[in-house]
Amino acid sequence: MKVKIVLALILASLIVVNCKSTNSEESPKGVIWLTTSSQQAKLEKLEGRISTGDSSSGNQVIEVNTSETYQTIDGFGYALTGGSADHLMGMDSDSRSELLKELYGTGEGEIGLSYVRVSIGASDLNAEVYSYDDLPNGQTDTDMSEFSLGKDHESVIPVLKEILAINPDIKIMGSPWSPPVWMKRFDIAVENGRDPALPPTVGGALKTEYHDAYALYFVKYIQAMADEGITIDAITVQNEPLHHRNNPSLHMEASQQRDFIKNSLGPAFAEAGIDTKIIVWDHNADNPNYPISILNDPEAKQYIDGSGFHLYGGEISALSTVKKAHPDKNLYFTEQYQNSNSNFGSDISWNIRNLIIGATRNWAKVVLHWNLTNNPTLTPYTPHGGCGVCQGAVTINGNSVTRNVGYYITAHASKFVRPGSVRIESEQIAGLPNVAFKTEEGNVVIIMMNETDSNQVFDISVDGELYNTSLLPGSVATIIL
C-alpha cells in the first residue's frame, strides 16, 4: 500500500498541462503512457503531466527535429508460432476474437500490432517437426508435386485469417527453420561435432543440387498462402543460419546463401512474378559481415530487400554497420525472446533500450519479438533444441489471459507508432535514452526511459516548441505531442 501511495504522490506532482490534450485515443496529443519497473503502472494513460516549457528552467533538453527524417516504419509485432496458434485455437471463439482484437485492433484498449512473423514449416515452438514436402526415405520431389501447407491448416492459417479480418493491412514475414530433410546433407555438421543420433531435422546443410527445388518450395509457399487469402510480404532465407543445433535447423554459410539467392531464389521469384521481399541473415548482431558479404555481390543484391537481425549476441549498433555499407537496403529486427524466469523491470528496461529504441535508432523498420502466446507449461516445443523457457506476450490458460512483460514492451511502440510513421531526429541525453517518430497524422511520438534511480524533470523541444515533463526512476514512457 505504501508503494502505491508514493507512486500516486509522484505522479500527482508531475507538472500540469497547459497545452491542449484530449481523451481520444485516436488523437492522443499531450498524453504520456507510462510503465514502471515496479508494475504499479503498466501502459497507464496519464493526462495533465505535460506543460509548455520555459527556456530559463535550466532543465535538460531533448531536441527533436521533425525535418530530419530516417526510415519509414512497417510495424511492430510478434511471431505467431505453431504453438501460439494452437493456444489461440484452444480458446472458445468469442474469447479468441476478443483477445485478437485487443492485440491487432487500433481502438480504445487495443495495442495495434501491425506485423507478424510465421515459420515456413515448423519452428522449435511447434508440437511436432514438419516441412511442406516430407517424403519417405530416399524419395525426392524436385518439381514440388507433393507440396502441401498441411499442418498449417490446423491452427496457423485459421488464426492468420482472423487477424487479417481485424487488420487487412497487416504485414506477414515467413522464415524457414529447415528445408525438407531430403534436401539436406550432414557431412559438415557431423565434422563439427553433430551427434549422428540426432534426427535429420537438426542441422545439416542444403545440397547444392537442390537449390532450384528449394527456390520452387518458397514459390509454392507464397502462392499457396495467397490462395488462402494471405499475402506474404517478406521471407527470410533461413532462420539463424549459423545455429544448427535447434530442431528444426539448417547450417547455411554466407557464400551458399548468396549463391542460392542470385542463381535460384531471386530468378524463381522473378519468373513467377513474385514481389515478396527477400531478407538475408536473420541471426545475431555479432556477425554483420555475413549480410554485408552477400550484399557485396551485385547479382545477389538486386534481389534482396534487406537484412534481419536478432540480439542474442553482439551489439544493436551492428545494424548501422550494415546500413552504412549498403544504405539502399532495409534493416529488420526479426526476433528476441523473453525468458520466463526473468524480472519484469530488468526485461522491460533492456528491451526498450536495445530494441524499441536501439533497433529503430539503428535503422530497423520492423521490430518483432518471439512468440505471441504461451500456456502455463510453456509447451509445445520440439525435442532436441526447442525452447522450454520462451514466454509469450500473453499466457493463455483455457480462456484466461495474462499479459506478460513482452506485451508491454511492444505495446509502447505498436499502439502509437503506426505503419507509415517516420523516425525523426531526437537528441540523446544521459540517463534518458529515446527515439522519436512523426506519424502520418502529424503527431510526434517519443518513446523513452529513465535509466537513473531518481525522478527526472526535463524539457522536450519539438522544432523549437518547448514542453516540460518528468519520468519516474526506472520507468518507460510513450509521449504524444
The CATH topology of the largest domain is TIM Barrel
Give the rounded overall mean pLDDT. Answer: 93
What order do the strands of the largest sheet run in, or round the barrel if closed? 2-1-25-22-21-20-4-23-24-3
Named CATH architecture of the largest domain: Alpha-Beta Barrel
Count of helical stretches: 12
The end-to-end distance, rounded to whole angstroms, is 33 Å
Query: In the CATH hierarchy, what is the class of the largest domain?
Result: Alpha Beta
Shape: globular
Helix share, percent: 25-40%
Commentary on this structure:
The structure is a single chain. With 481 residues, the chain is of the alpha/beta class. The chain folds into 2 domains: 2-71 and 424-480, Sandwich (Immunoglobulin-like), CATH 2.60.40.1180; 74-419, TIM Barrel (Alpha-Beta Barrel). It has 12 helices and 25 strands. It has helices at residues 2-13, 82-89, 93-104, 156-166, 187-191, 211-227, 254-272, 289-295, 298-301, 318-325, 344-361, 405-414, and strands at 31-35, 44-47, 51-52, 60-72, 75-79, 115-120, 171-176, 184-185, 205-206, 234-236, 277-285, 306-314, 330-335, 338-339, 364-369, 373-374, 390-391, 394-397, 400-403, 422-426, 434-438, 444-449, 456-462, 465-471, 476-480. The strands form 5 sheets. It has a 10-stranded mixed β-sheet with strand order 2-1-25-22-21-20-4-23-24-3, with helices on one face. α6 packs across α7 (254-272) and α7 crosses α8. The longest helix has 19 residues, at 254-272. The relative contact order is 0.18. The model is unreliable at 1-27 (pLDDT under 50).
